[in-house]
Amino acid sequence: MNFFKGSNIKHFLTSLEKDSYPMKPCSKDDISKLINISPTRTLPQTYLDFMNKAGNGIEFLVGTNYSMNYIFDLKEWAIELLEENNSIKKLTDNQFIFMMHQGYMFWFFNLNEGDDPAVYSYNESVELDDFNKVSDTLSDFLISLYD
């Protein structure tokens, strides 16, 4: 099954579900915790849709921390990673860390960029003056990890 840039995350996840692809959804309580993560900011709908279907595990993300077991620690870990590497980059309250891999790289989106925001990354092995934009949309980013 191939998905291409511009696919809708709901369509993508529904297709995986129909093919019995291994994934574990978040509970209603988990989704409620995510929705209430900040009193002043809301998480993008694309992210909530993904977590609703696969927020407690999906096969193509094995080894990557993104699930409910880790989500509330990721920002702290990302800040620690930046500090350990003496990075001049700083994270703001507007940036939501949604995924970290092996403790050396993380991905985030800006909370004020709508329901399918761009995705940015930090990788300790790459020297850049700013965070690296890796995708124009969260949907494309997540689907690309599968493709």
TrEMBL record:
Knr4/Smi1-like domain boundaries: 25-144
Entry superkingdom: Bacteria
Family annotation (Pfam families): SMI1_KNR4
UniProt source species: Lysinibacillus xylanilyticus
Protein name: SMI1/KNR4 family protein
InterPro entries membership: Knr4/Smi1-like_dom, Knr4/Smi1-like_sf
